[in-house]
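User
New here, explain this?
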Amino acid sequence: MELKEKVERLSEAKFQELFGVKKITFSLMLEVLEEKYKKDHQRRGCKGKLSVFERLIVMLEYYRHYVTMEKLAFDHNVEKSTICDTIRWVETTLQENDSLPLPKRRNTAGIEEIAVDVTEIEIERPKEKQEKWYSGKKTAHTKSANRSTRTK
């Protein structure tokens, strides 16, 4: 059974559970994406590896289930870069359209401070039974060179 048929057969509750949107919202999103795709490919060009329908499914799966791009690439038989480009294209296309009730991208230009926790942790090293001349290097020539200078 094809993916499109499986998705169409889902009940409204199951559909929303799987994809996080209602069927009516999904169809509106799909219309917007198909319109944009036709506009971008008026003069022909390479056919994409994923259909517009599959692209929307990929983006919704990515956001709904926190699936890695590697897993999505494996499931849809494409490369990880294709999944990344697909998600970015669907996001930007849907956010550019004002008819859909989606959150817009945040403007981060006004941020003055960013806090990052980079706490230093002391590395434990052996204190006992270590030669005073030992530098910590583990190459053979270093040990022999240090031993020869120590015995003189």
About this structure: Residues 23-40 form the longest helix (18 residues). The chain is about 55% helix and 0% strand.
